[in-house]
Amino acid sequence: MKETVGSRKSGRRVGSPEEAAFLELLRTTDMLSRGLVGVLKGEDVSATQYNVLRILRGAPEGLPCGEIASRMITRDPDVTRLLDRLEKRELISRCRETKDRRTVMTRITPEGLKLLARLDEPVQGAHRKQLGHLGRERLRALSELLRASRAQVA
Questions:
Q1: pTM of the full predicted structure?
Q2: What is the CA radius of gyration of the chain?
Q3: Domains of the chain, earliest start first
Q4: Cβ within 8 Å of residue 111, ≥6 positions away
Q5: What is the DSSP letter of 12?
Q6: DSSP SS3 for 17
Q7: What does the pLDDT average to over 78-100?
Q8: pLDDT digits over 93-124, tens only?
Q9: Where does residue 131 rank: exposed (0-12), middle (13-18), buried (19+ CB within 10 A)?
Q10: Residues of 51-89 as b/e, b for ≥16 C-beta within 10 angstroms?
Q11: Cα separation, 67 vs 131, whole angstroms
Protein backbone atom coordinates (compact mmCIF):
# COMPACT_ATOMS: atom_id res chain seq x y z
CA MET A 1 0.00 0.00 0.00
CA LYS A 2 1.32 3.42 -0.94
CA GLU A 3 1.66 5.87 1.92
CA THR A 4 -0.55 8.92 1.57
CA VAL A 5 -0.72 12.15 3.45
CA GLY A 6 -2.13 11.48 6.90
CA SER A 7 -1.74 7.69 6.68
CA ARG A 8 0.59 5.53 8.74
CA LYS A 9 3.08 3.00 7.48
CA SER A 10 5.79 1.47 9.63
CA GLY A 11 4.82 3.83 12.44
CA ARG A 12 5.73 6.92 10.40
CA ARG A 13 3.26 9.75 10.06
CA VAL A 14 3.16 11.83 6.94
CA GLY A 15 1.68 15.24 7.50
CA SER A 16 0.43 17.71 4.97
CA PRO A 17 1.45 17.75 1.30
CA GLU A 18 3.56 20.81 2.16
CA GLU A 19 5.42 18.88 4.85
CA ALA A 20 5.93 15.91 2.52
CA ALA A 21 7.33 18.19 -0.20
CA PHE A 22 9.57 19.94 2.33
CA LEU A 23 11.00 16.62 3.53
CA GLU A 24 11.60 15.48 -0.06
CA LEU A 25 13.46 18.74 -0.73
CA LEU A 26 15.66 18.22 2.35
CA ARG A 27 16.45 14.61 1.39
CA THR A 28 17.24 15.60 -2.19
CA THR A 29 19.38 18.57 -1.15
CA ASP A 30 21.38 16.37 1.19
CA MET A 31 21.93 13.70 -1.47
CA LEU A 32 22.89 16.18 -4.21
CA SER A 33 25.17 18.13 -1.85
CA ARG A 34 27.07 15.00 -0.88
CA GLY A 35 27.77 14.34 -4.57
CA LEU A 36 29.17 17.84 -5.05
CA VAL A 37 31.28 17.64 -1.88
CA GLY A 38 33.01 14.59 -3.35
CA VAL A 39 34.02 16.57 -6.45
CA LEU A 40 35.19 19.61 -4.46
CA LYS A 41 37.18 17.51 -2.01
CA GLY A 42 39.80 16.85 -4.70
CA GLU A 43 40.66 20.57 -4.68
CA ASP A 44 40.31 20.88 -0.89
CA VAL A 45 37.46 23.38 -1.24
CA SER A 46 34.19 23.40 0.70
CA ALA A 47 30.87 23.97 -1.04
CA THR A 48 30.64 27.40 0.64
CA GLN A 49 34.13 28.38 -0.54
CA TYR A 50 33.27 27.20 -4.05
CA ASN A 51 30.13 29.34 -3.93
CA VAL A 52 32.17 32.44 -2.97
CA LEU A 53 34.67 31.82 -5.77
CA ARG A 54 31.88 31.46 -8.33
CA ILE A 55 30.28 34.70 -7.10
CA LEU A 56 33.60 36.54 -7.44
CA ARG A 57 34.28 35.07 -10.89
CA GLY A 58 31.04 36.73 -11.97
CA ALA A 59 32.15 40.07 -10.53
CA PRO A 60 35.71 40.72 -11.78
CA GLU A 61 35.55 44.29 -10.42
CA GLY A 62 35.22 42.80 -6.95
CA LEU A 63 32.57 42.93 -4.26
CA PRO A 64 32.37 44.08 -0.65
CA CYS A 65 31.87 41.39 2.00
CA GLY A 66 28.19 42.22 2.56
CA GLU A 67 27.39 41.86 -1.13
CA ILE A 68 29.12 38.47 -1.26
CA ALA A 69 27.08 37.35 1.76
CA SER A 70 23.81 38.46 0.14
CA ARG A 71 24.56 36.48 -3.06
CA MET A 72 25.51 33.23 -1.34
CA ILE A 73 23.32 30.17 -1.86
CA THR A 74 23.52 29.16 1.78
CA ARG A 75 23.95 31.77 4.47
CA ASP A 76 27.25 31.65 6.34
CA PRO A 77 27.22 33.73 9.52
CA ASP A 78 30.98 34.25 9.39
CA VAL A 79 31.77 35.35 5.84
CA THR A 80 34.86 37.24 7.05
CA ARG A 81 36.47 34.05 8.36
CA LEU A 82 35.53 32.26 5.14
CA LEU A 83 37.23 35.01 3.13
CA ASP A 84 40.26 34.84 5.44
CA ARG A 85 40.74 31.15 4.57
CA LEU A 86 40.41 31.82 0.84
CA GLU A 87 42.84 34.74 1.06
CA LYS A 88 45.35 32.61 2.96
CA ARG A 89 45.27 30.14 0.05
CA GLU A 90 45.72 33.10 -2.37
CA LEU A 91 42.43 32.32 -4.13
CA ILE A 92 41.09 35.81 -3.42
CA SER A 93 42.56 39.20 -2.58
CA ARG A 94 41.13 42.03 -0.51
CA CYS A 95 42.00 45.70 -0.52
CA ARG A 96 40.55 48.94 0.81
CA GLU A 97 39.01 51.25 -1.71
CA THR A 98 40.71 54.59 -2.23
CA LYS A 99 37.38 56.45 -2.57
CA ASP A 100 35.87 55.04 0.61
CA ARG A 101 38.43 53.63 3.03
CA ARG A 102 35.67 51.83 4.95
CA THR A 103 34.96 49.57 1.97
CA VAL A 104 37.09 46.47 1.47
CA MET A 105 36.73 44.98 -2.00
CA THR A 106 37.26 41.26 -2.53
CA ARG A 107 38.42 39.94 -5.91
CA ILE A 108 39.19 36.49 -7.23
CA THR A 109 42.87 35.95 -8.05
CA PRO A 110 44.33 34.22 -11.11
CA GLU A 111 44.93 31.20 -8.84
CA GLY A 112 41.25 31.22 -7.85
CA LEU A 113 40.24 31.36 -11.51
CA LYS A 114 42.51 28.41 -12.28
CA LEU A 115 40.95 26.39 -9.48
CA LEU A 116 37.45 27.10 -10.82
CA ALA A 117 38.55 26.19 -14.35
CA ARG A 118 39.76 22.81 -13.05
CA LEU A 119 36.42 22.28 -11.28
CA ASP A 120 34.08 23.46 -14.06
CA GLU A 121 33.85 20.18 -15.96
CA PRO A 122 33.85 17.82 -12.96
CA VAL A 123 31.07 19.86 -11.32
CA GLN A 124 29.02 19.94 -14.53
CA GLY A 125 29.60 16.20 -14.91
CA ALA A 126 28.33 15.60 -11.38
CA HIS A 127 25.22 17.68 -12.10
CA ARG A 128 24.58 15.75 -15.33
CA LYS A 129 25.01 12.43 -13.51
CA GLN A 130 22.67 13.47 -10.71
CA LEU A 131 19.94 15.26 -12.66
CA GLY A 132 20.46 14.67 -16.38
CA HIS A 133 18.03 11.75 -16.45
CA LEU A 134 15.16 14.19 -15.82
CA GLY A 135 15.55 15.83 -19.24
CA ARG A 136 15.44 19.52 -20.13
CA GLU A 137 11.68 20.05 -19.82
CA ARG A 138 11.35 18.43 -16.41
CA LEU A 139 14.44 20.27 -15.15
CA ARG A 140 13.02 23.56 -16.40
CA ALA A 141 9.68 22.81 -14.68
CA LEU A 142 11.45 21.81 -11.46
CA SER A 143 13.49 25.02 -11.49
CA GLU A 144 10.35 27.10 -12.03
CA LEU A 145 8.57 25.37 -9.14
CA LEU A 146 11.52 25.92 -6.81
CA ARG A 147 11.82 29.60 -7.80
CA ALA A 148 8.09 30.07 -7.21
CA SER A 149 8.40 28.44 -3.80
CA ARG A 150 11.28 30.73 -2.79
CA ALA A 151 9.48 33.83 -4.09
CA GLN A 152 6.48 33.06 -1.88
CA VAL A 153 8.66 32.57 1.22
CA ALA A 154 10.90 35.60 0.69
A1: 0.82
A2: 20
A3: 43-126 (1.10.10.10)
A4: 89, 90, 91
A5: E
A6: helix
A7: 90
A8: 999 877 777 788 999 999 999 999 999 999 99
A9: middle
A10: bbbbbbeeeeebbbbeebbeeeeeebeebeebbeebeee
A11: 30
